[in-house]
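job 3f2a | input accepted
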Amino acid sequence: MKTFFARYCGNPPGSGTPYESWKERDLQVLADIVRGITLWHTTREKDEPAQLECDWARLEELTEGWTPVLTPYGRGILTHQNCD
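job 3f2a | predicted structure (84 res):
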């Protein structure tokens, strides 16, 4: 994720930044990165690996260090250290 967001030099797409909107290819790359993150979905019956998915319904919240995701448990946020 750090490498992905580094291409924006600390200014990910959004109002008032040099990148006004997210490019479709960039969103696909981000979706692939997020999908590659495994978490364990635990129920009373079993534990099984599951993947995160980008929550495109909340695209306006997406920024460096804050990625809206869908989990087996519902809506969530994927965070990572933001060095800015």
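job 3f2a | Residues 27 and 41 are 25 Å apart (CA to CA).
job 3f2a | closed
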